[in-house]
Amino acid sequence: MKQWNFLGYDFGASNGRAMLGTFDGEKIELKEIHRFPNDPVEIAGRFVWDVQRLFFEMKQALVKIGKAGIHLDAIGIDTWGVDFGLLDKNGNLVSVPVHYRDARTDGMMEKCFQILPKEKIFEATGLAFMQFNTLYQLMSMKMADDPALKIADKLLFMPDLLAYFLTGKAATEYTDASTSQLVDPRTRNWSDAIFEAFDLPKNIMTEIQPAGTVRGTLLPEIARECGVEEIPVIAVGSHDTASAVAAVPAQDADFAYISSGTWSLLGAEITTPLCDKAVMDANYTNEGGVCGTIRLLKNIMGLWIIQECKREWDRRGDILSFPQLVELASQAPAFKAVIDVDDQRFYAPGDMPERIREYCRETNQPVPETIGEISRVVYEGLALKYRWAIERMEQDMLKKPVKVLHIVGGGSKNAMLNQFTANALGRPVLAGPGEGTVIGNLLMQGMALGAVSDLWQLRKVVEKSFPTDRFLPENTDQWDAAYARFLTLMR
Q1: Which helix (H) or strand (E) is 19 found in, with range?
Q2: Which of 3, 12, 273, 299 gives the lowest tally of CB atoms within 10 Å of its CB?
Q3: At 421, phi and psi to the nearest 5?
Q4: How far apart are the C-alpha atoms of 292 and 358, rounded to whole Å?
Q5: pLDDT for res 253
Q6: Which helix (H) or strand (E) holds 404?
Q7: Is the pTM of this model over 0.90?
């Protein structure tokens, strides 16, 4: 049986890595080839991505592959969504990709609603309203009379931009495009209604291709520089959540998932987008999945809050690892306070511990003071928000119960949060694999080349290749009481 070697580039909000996947037709094994920081930088008052450095690191991974004498069958790239670069007519980058947390989109949604009502935007796109969506980034450029937008010939989202640097081929992969609020989820193409209403330049958008499309091959000069062959580059599920959901080791369709990391992306897999008022009011979104699926999901603030807390504690000299924060949280009292992790004050970087204390003071709750107390409040708040999100989805959208929750991604390694989630939901939680995103990336390369037949075989490979941990509900009465307190904050 043929052995396949796939290289997956997986870019997160704080680091990137190149992972080698070796697939024998039944199981896949992973090996980290290269890891590097992905630190955004502030330049001239803008919070931006250092895309040239990221491309340099991609080539370093290929150099290591070449020196090791490894034959690669394909390359795939996944990143976060919404952010983009602009190319001029000569194919040169004319604007550094701006970070989705940059302040340029502050208040932009409200300005856009004055042009086209919120309900009409949702009807056209089926996408949840997040101030960093590409629509609002473009409108901020237009309203600022940004010269980069005027001379742009092509817009490429981050994974497509990096693939363009490798291949010279410009196109747009569907799952990433679907996060932009520029796509009609029914036609799976650019929304004429949106481009016309906001008078945006549709001519800069490139052809949308489904996940699993061969984008091109490595440019000869890059192959020569790195000492590798002219390897096929696959447009995988290039939005990281799409790749993570593809790798959920589910055996039937009645499951929910959380792709757990800086964000918690909680949802279910459906075949037809749901663009009605109940979905809009709950701020759920219809994003593209692989193999014709739709990811009905809710963006929840996720481990960003604890990451920002740790950053502040580190700055003060209380330098603790994430496992140490979990241990301190486990020793703190349960439910000292309850927070809505999606409160707007938790969105931006800053003194997160003080923001949590401020929230508790404003909601007339006991104020957590110690590192352990604050950490526990965050983890409990995440679990309670997961329950709220699943109940909304079951009652108002799916119209059927979810049997089991799968948690994939880095957050799936947090056993305490997994147990809290099972307790809050009152149903089983299956955690793992922790490397779900890059696994989905690698196996979609396999699907593009015929090594994997379909999505369910892909998930069977994941189940065979990686263990999962099962968490059963405990102390449900205590969690039900805490959830009742939580619901008072959501009204």
Answers
A1: strand 15-23
A2: 3
A3: -65, -45
A4: 44
A5: 82
A6: strand 404-408
A7: yes
Helix (H) or strand (E) holding 86: strand 84-87
Taking each helix axis from N to C terminus, what angle separates 108-115 and 134-143, rounded to the nearest 10 degrees?
Answer: 80
Evaluated on CA atoms 79, 84, 90, 95, the torsion sign reads negative
In whole angstroms, give the CA distance from residue 315 to residue 244: 32
Determine which helix (DSSP H) or strand (DSSP E) holds 7, and give its type and residue range. strand 4-11
Question: Both tokens of residue 372?
Answer: 């352990």
Place of tokens 């009807």: 123
Q: Tens digit of pLDDT for each residue in 125-138?
A: 999 999 999 999 99
Residue whose token pair is 């919404």: 82
Output the CA angle 184-102-197, nearest 5 degrees: 30
Q: pLDDT tens across 58-87, in order? A: 999 999 999 999 999 999 999 999 999 999
**Residue 240 annotated as catalytic:** yes
The helix (H) or strand (E) run that includes residue 390 is: helix 371-393
pLDDT score for 95: 86
Q: Which of 127, 129, 175, 392 is nearest to 286 (CA)?
A: 127
3-class secondary structure, 93 = strand
Question: Could you write out the DSSP letters of every residue in 439-469?
Answer: HHHHHHHHHHTTSS-SHHHHHHHHHHHS--E
Residue with tokens 């892909």: 458
Residues 430-448: what's their mean pLDDT?
97
Q: Whole-angstrom Cα distance, residue 380 to residue 334?
A: 8
Rounded Cα distance between 221 and 165, Å, is 11
Q: So what's the pLDDT on residue 252?
A: 83
Of the residues 10, 78, 102, 240, only one is catalytic, namely 240
* Cβ(194)–Cβ(135) below 8 Å: yes
pLDDT band for 490, please (50, 70, 90 cuts). confident
C-alpha to C-alpha distance for 299 and 265, rounded to whole angstroms: 5
Coil, helix or strand for 33?
strand
